[in-house]
Amino acid sequence: MSIILSLLLLQAPYALPGEAAVDPYVADSRHAGAVPFTGDGMAKAFGGQDGIRRIVDRFVAINFADPVIGEIFANHDKVRLKRTLFEQFCFILNAGCTYSGRDMASAHKDLGVQKADMNRLVETLQRAMREEGISFQAQNRFLSKLAPMRHDVIEK
Amino acid sequence: MMTCFRPFLCIMLALAALSPQQGMARPIRNGGKLLLTNGISSLEGASGGGLTPWAVIAGNETSDGFGMSAHGTLVEVKDYDYQSAGVAIGIRDRIELSYTHQDFNTNEIGAALGLGKDFAFSQDIFGAKIRVAGDLVYDRLPAIAVGVQYKNNNQGAIVRAVGAKGDEGVDYYASVSKLFLARSILLSATARLTKANQMGLLGFGGGKQGNHTLQFEGSAAWQLSRRIAIGGEYRRKPDNLNIAREDDWFDAFAAVAISRNVTATIAYADLGSIATVKKQRGVFLQLQTAF
């Protein structure tokens, strides 16, 4: 019993209940791939953790249903993706989270993401942010943190 | 070695063959550029702002595909009308080849100049541009491109009569462009070596200066929304002809991505003195389609 419990605890940073198992890795907020904003301006602009959670849920839903990039997401653990994306966005927006997911290169390895897919992803994220009423200027400020990740995301 | 009867086709084939190995591993895929990041079509046909090229490549393709654009442009200033139309192709978001035809109607001024009412200057411009490094949106390094524009004026006798040394010329330019996402601001700067008088519509070289001179051009744009950008441009011009002073150009523009494939631009342009008549200010309109 105690062995199972300790195994569960050990596993906690990798996969939470309801998520598929993943290979072990060392969790570190630096894996979020960007230095967070300072101050609480961006967190407020995104409606705090509640707003960020709605954006992420919508973003993930749009991506899974998207005719262009939907198939890249098709075999992914939607529950885990929502959690780790929320943590990543929340961490970068300085809304009071740590990021426990994998680094961007590992998370996107062998997905075959092309530049057109990355641009499509920008558009689906813009749509999710727009629907939440985030100002265009704040959207672009956030995107400026994500843009340098392209090198780790796209297939070389 | 194949024989090249059609140089253009040969360039295309050679470029396809030269594509990097890693590029070959990914499937060909057209389209996929972010809205407005292909720029509009400048007067001389290069993708960029209206007056000056940017270090962007025509068409909606990424490095995995091929794209094209076509444009029609009208400029109505106080005493003159201008129209141009052209096409451009983009190869792997790396190389741009363009052709543009320009018509410049002198209306009543033609009669005053002794050319006849509604006399029109015209020229053809063939352009090539290569993005040598960087990226407009994603990389820290700005997009950097170099280009050439071969211009052939169709009124050789007339442009020589007004004092131009020749009826054809080549412009060489280098552009650096960057979209600063954190501020939603695009800045672009171009250095151009040119001997063209009013882009070449009044020929090349003149009594004051017969050789290429270095000119600077720039654009600043602020993206208001995914589909709308506003901004201003400046283009320094040479002043080669004895009989007609040539001024620097300015504009203030609004560009709207009406759809993924259509961009409309309206601008207020100040083109200064043209062919002896001062204060040529008016409106610039363009429709561009890109795939």
Topology:
The complex is a heterodimer of chains A (156) and B (291).
Chain A: H1 2-11, H2 41-45, H3 48-65, H4 70-73, H5 78-92, H6 104-107, H7 115-131, H8 136-146, H9 150-153
Helix pairs in contact in A: 3-5, 3-7
Chain B: H1 7-18, H2 21-25, E1 40-41, E2 47-48, E3 66-77, E4 81-91, E5 95-105, H3 107-112, E6 120-133, E7 143-153, H4 156-161, E8 168-180, E9 185-194, E10 213-223, E11 228-235, E12 249-259, E13 262-270, E14 281-290
Antiparallel strand pairs in B: 1-2, 3-4, 3-14, 4-5, 5-6, 6-7, 7-8, 8-9, 9-10, 10-11, 11-12, 12-13, 13-14
Quick take:
Chain A is mostly helical.
By CATH reckoning, the class of chain A would read Mainly Alpha
Query: How large, in whole angstroms, is the Cα Rg of chain B?
Result: 19 Å
Mean pLDDT of chain A equals 92
The value of Rg of chain A in angstroms is: 16 Å
How many helical elements of chain B?
4
Comma- or semicolon-separated keywords:
heterodimer; A: 156 residues; mainly alpha; Globin-like; B: 291 residues; mainly beta; Porin; 4 helices; 14 strands; 10% helix; globular
